[in-house]
Amino acid sequence: MTDLADAPVRQVTLDRPFEDQKPGTSGLRKSSQQFQTPHYLESFIEASLRVVPGITGGTIVVGGDGRYGNRRAIDVIARMAAAHGVAKLITTTGGILSTPAASNLIRSHAAACGVILSASHNPGGPDGDFGVKINGANGGPAPESVTDAIYAATRQLDGYRFLEAEALSLDSPGSFRIGSMQVEVLDGVDAYAELMQTLFDFDAIAALLRGNFRLAFDAMHAVTGPYAKRIFEQLLGAPAGTVRNGLPLEDFGGGHPDPNLTYAHDLAELLLQGDLYDFGAACDGDGDRNMILGRRCFVNPSDSLAVLTAQATLAPGYAAGLAGVARSMPTSAAVDVVARELGIPCFETPTGWKFFGNLLDAGRITLCGEESFGTGSNHIREKDGLWAVLFWLNILAVRGCSVAEIMTEHWGRFGRHYYSRHDYEAIASEAAHGLYDRVKSMQPTLVGQAFAGRTIATADDFAYSDPVDGSLTSGQGLRLLLDDGSRVVLRLSGTGTQGATLRVYLESYVPPSGDLHQDPQVALAEMITAIDALAEIRTRTGMERPTVIT
Ligand code: G1P
Ligand code: ZN
Asked: Helix, strand, coil proportions of the chain in percent (round to 5)?
């Protein structure tokens, strides 16, 4: 590697600041084209480097999910970090770094922050999306105080500085300097694989995978390919080919790297229609989401969190039990029932991982999850797709039964929360906001009204008071709570990049004595019709059916 120690500092003056760099729940997420706009990426990075505490003389971790723009962004960030007096920049071979592995590196290297390059499950490529997420020293998404300050800084920015240096060579691990900054290129998988070995019984899982048990893992041509190959095929001895679509591609092979029944359709069909495989799983673009499938059995993410909570002590990393659990508000209350039985606290937070961070840092919870295929624990401060897959495999290895048997047993003990999320994607912004604002304004009059053969007991807009720092977060979703414990929630997505996305969350509880084996769409049919009538979803969006049903 060329020694870049003498690289000169350059200064660029901006004619005017960018106005549209407000980070959402998952960082700054825009089209790849937008990020190609001259100075656009640089502006956001400059603002971040000025605002995040501990940058000068500190360590930062940089890497991404391999999508189009990843390598260029790493070069830009390295040059700018060097000009800002960062002492050490840690990145990975090929710049490939999953979000959970980044969280782990930030924590284990006591970094001031991480810069994660990803638009998560959004499509990639020149016509797809790109994103930059700033994580704090705890390894989790930066708190709102920091992202607000970054946004404010972008709006006043008059320029940025960088060290003029050639493109980094990230082909293999090594170390070199840019100016006085040390760049360390690590193998992105090593530390993560080691961490997983401390949490799960790799011997038991290896015995399972070397037997008749057939696993299919779909990396969706995104970041988890190299991680999954190392862990499942090399360390655990699953047959070659267990990991499908394992090569990270800049455009994810043209796919939509979101592990759900719609976008991970091939895998879903393999498990739900066929009998060749016992277990199927997929992760999203940046590796923090997971989908779990058994033979002819889909595990709803809300149920997955409940099962992991109920069976946690079977995994060595959780053998001592759980301090508590948390779920996002739209996630079903399946985990609440388990927590009650275990006698541990259960918190209900707004959507987005950062709300779990405070609870994890304070030691109030051990596991947490969201209905959107995100599950995680106190091992890092992000959700973790492969971690969830390994947790399930650990449970199955110890229990020696199938996924379907685990689910039947779980519902038979705790009852079942029939659950579904209907997404209406990329609808006109005015239509979405019109619909939402109308239901919101109707809320006070809804209480006591009939709804799907039940009565609306409460209608509110979810607000959360953080039990750790006392901060209040409001406007988190319109809830209709029915008198039998069922509910419907309406929310507008904070992560979409085209138009608006309306999410409708439906949930209905059946006790252990009830009918536990219905199709959720059938079990929820009356509520689906009722919310459409109330919110005028079809007429106002012009869509006959949701884009994605989970
Ligand atoms: C979506 C999910 C949410 C998750 C977020 C980031 O956000 O619904 O649970 O935390 O992606 O992965 P939304 O688009 O609903 O705002
Ligand atoms: Zn993701």
From this structure: 35, 25, 40
Residues near 381 by beta carbon (within 8 Å), at least 6 away in sequence = 103, 107, 135, 138, 139, 140, 141, 353, 356, 357, 360, 361
Where do you find CATH 3.30.310.50 in the chain? Answer: 416-549
Q: How far apart are CA 328 and CA 331, in angstroms?
A: 5
- pTM tops 0.70: yes
**Beta-bridge mates of residue 31:** 129
**Does any ligand 1 atom lie closer than 6 A to the CB of residue 423?**
no
> Given this model, what pLDDT does residue 4 score?
63
Q: Does ligand 1 come within 6 angstroms of the Cβ of 331?
A: no
* Mutation probe of ligand 1 site: the residue of 351, 354, 462, 505 with most atoms within 8 A of C-beta: 351
Domain 416-549 fold: TATA-Binding Protein (3.30.310)
**What is the second-level CATH architecture of the domain 192-414?**
3-Layer(aba) Sandwich (3.40)
Ligand number, closest to the Cα atom of 64: 2
Q: Phi and psi of 161, rounded to 5°?
A: -130, 155
Angle between helices 385-399 and 99-108 (to 10 degrees): 100
For ligand 1, mutation pick of 133, 491, 495, 501 (most atoms within 8 Å of CB): 495
Closest C-alpha to 150, from 141, 163, 139, 161: 141
* Closest to 213 measured CA to CA, from 293, 291, 279: 279
Q: Which of 120, 332, 486, 493 is catalytic?
A: 120
pLDDT, residue 1, reads 46
Residue-level pLDDT at 24: 84
Question: Residue whose CA is closest, atom 13 of ligand 1?
Answer: 493
Helix (H) or strand (E) holding 392: helix 385-399
> 9-188 belongs to which CATH class?
alpha beta
* Atom 9 in ligand 1: residue holding the nearest Cα: 372
In 187-332 the beta strands, taken as DSSP E runs, fall at 215-218, 243-244, 279-283, 290-294, 297-299, 325-328
CA 459, CA 138: separation in Å to the nearest integer? 36
Q: How far apart are the first and last CA of the chain?
A: 48
Q: Would residue 120 show up in a list of annotated catalytic residues for this protein?
A: yes
| Regions in the chain scoring below 50 on pLDDT | 1-2
Q: Which helix (H) or strand (E) holds 533?
A: helix 525-535
pLDDT of residue 6: 73
Q: What is the pLDDT of residue 7?
A: 78
Q: Parallel, antiparallel, or unpaired: how do β-strands 215-218 and 243-244 relate?
A: parallel
Query: What is the rounded CA–CA span in Å between residue 305 and residue 243?
Result: 24
CA of 188 to the centre of ligand 2 (A): 17
Atom of ligand 1 nearest to the CA of 26: 6
List where CATH 3.40.120.10 sits in the chain. 9-188, 192-414
CB atoms within 10 A of CB 13: 8
